[in-house]
From TrEMBL:
Gene3D superfamilies: Nucleoside phosphorylase domain (3.40.50.1580). Phosphate binds at residues 13, 55-56, 187. Substrate binds at residues 186, 210-212. GO terms for molecular function: S-methyl-5-thioadenosine phosphorylase activity. This is Purine nucleoside phosphorylase. GO terms for biological process: L-methionine salvage from methylthioadenosine; purine ribonucleoside salvage. Belongs to the PNP/MTAP phosphorylase family. MTAP subfamily. The lineage of its organism: Bacteria, Pseudomonadati, Spirochaetota, Spirochaetia, Leptospirales. It catalyses: a purine D-ribonucleoside + phosphate = a purine nucleobase + alpha-D-ribose 1-phosphate. It comes from Leptospira kemamanensis. Purine nucleoside phosphorylase involved in purine salvage.
């Protein structure tokens, strides 16, 4: 594969570009699952090539359930991406996680219900392990980069993913807290699941904007307040990413390589040729 780009960055709400990146080209490829959210910017930053993709599109025109996650992950896989750092704004479900705090989740609770969450369907089944949905190695690299810039960060937290686009009811917010969830967003799934199936290391970096609606003694959350926190978080995220890049793109973690091959369960004679043709886009040597 020519021009392999090992590092993928997915930008969430408020993060639509990487300051200081030399732009080499922009692509908007067709994949067997359609086109990605927007053009993928391939650039060079601190001597390393990066593929940057805005999850909601530039200008934020895709709601969380409309994000073409399969096309996004497939396009990054085709470029040669081995690890993805995904940024996301979240609501806090804990007093100690204040607005503008950064969080590294280690677990996910799935509350989505209307999204395509797998590449394996239509006559080709696979059951990939997902007990630990994020990459411990990438989490440590994010923590190390945060320490370098003196950014306090909450680690080993549980992220709950809801369908949206409306926010939680107050009853739901209290329920999620009782389940042990620490933060909430609308976008980690199916992104994390698809990255796992595609054998790409994946870690989400979460940026708190508000206390969701459980904290009844908190001043009423306004759009102006959230937008101000989004802007501040985006600036901090760019500083973190600038330092984090030094730790990425080293091909030093092969724990997922070949993992999906051993998750295939459909007998060869029962496999749908049309689906296999699509999957060869991701795994040209598996079929």
């Amino acid at each position: 594969m020519a021009n392999v780009v090992k590092i993928g960055v997915i930008g969430g709400t408020g993060l639509y570009s990487i300051d200081g990146m030399e732009i080499l080209k922009e692509i908007h490829p067709d994949t067997p699952w359609g086109k990605p959210s927007d053009t993928i910017t391939i650039g060079r930053f601190k001597g390393k090539e990066i593929a940057f993709l805005p999850r909601h599109g530039k200008g934020h025109f895709l709601n969380p359930s409309e994000v073409p996650a399969r096309a996004n992950i497939a396009a990054l896989k085709q470029l040669g991406v081995e690890e993805i750092i995904a940024f996301s704004s979240v609501g806090s479900l804990r007093q100690e996680i204040a607005p503008r705090d950064f969080v590294i989740p280690s677990q996910i609770i799935d509350r989505t219900k209307a999204r395509h969450a797998t590449f394996f369907e239509n006559g080709m089944v696979a059951h990939a392990p997902f007990a630990d949905p994020f990459s411990p190695g990438l989490a440590k690299k994010v923590e190390a980069a945060a320490k370098q810039i003196n950014l306090p960060i909450h680690s080993n937290k549980t992220l709950i993913c809801m369908e949206g686009p409306l926010f939680s009811t107050r009853a739901e917010s209290h329920m999620y807290r009782s389940w042990g969830a620490d933060i909430i967003n609308m976008t980690v799934l199916p992104e994390a699941k698809l990255a796992r199936e595609a054998e790409i290391l994946y870690q989400m970096v979460c940026m708190s904007t508000d206390y969701d609606c459980w904290k009844e003694d908190e001043a009423h959350v306004t759009l102006e307040m959230v937008l101000a926190n989004l802007s501040a978080n985006a600036d901090t995220a760019k500083k973190l990413l600038s330092t984090l890049i030094d730790h990425l793109g080293k091909s030093d973690d092969n724990s997922l390589v070949g993992s999906t091959k051993f998750s295939l369960v459909t007998s060869p004679e029962k496999r749908n040729p049309e689906q296999i043709a699509k999957l060869k886009y991701l795994f040209p040597t598996y079929f």
